Amino acid sequence: MTHHPRTRRMQQIKLDDRDLKLLSVIQADGRITKAELAKRINLSPTACWERLRRLEDHGVIQGYGARVSADAFGPRLTIIMQAELDSHQSSDFMRFEAAVAKMREIEECWAVGGGVDYFLKFACRDIDAYQRLVDRLLDADIGLKRYYTYIVTKTVKTVPVPV
Length: 163
Fold this sequence. Notes:
Layout: E1 2-3, H1 17-28, H2 34-40, H3 45-57, E2 63-64, E3 77-85, H4 90-101, E4 106-111, E5 118-124, H5 127-139, E6 144-151
Antiparallel strand pairs: 1-2, 3-5, 3-6, 4-5
Helix pairs in contact: 2-3
């Protein structure tokens, strides 16, 4: 996903029904023309453009992109890792997160509460490629104490953020 150059940290913004309709339309069809978007939400093109810019400026719209099929690149495994760190100082979390941010194969990483530190989502060609990544994480001295691996056998549901 490409990010709009003016996007900054999410700011609180009050969204009205027209904003929600606009978001819903562009989420379903990001290539819609501004004229057609204005028509669908019953606004003038200028008013529609101003709303769109406001939503971008406030970080509600974080970017525009295409949903690319992972299958186009051949077979791959989706793997979820549950990770626990050795130590729980702020610097430990920052070191781990900085290392994870640099690894392209890690598609998503969530810090969680409840006895586990992180869940990570990997995209790998095969289990051997995944194990090499895990070895890199372990060798990187980033505080990974214990991990559990879960192989995704099928995707049951994936949806964009509900508007």
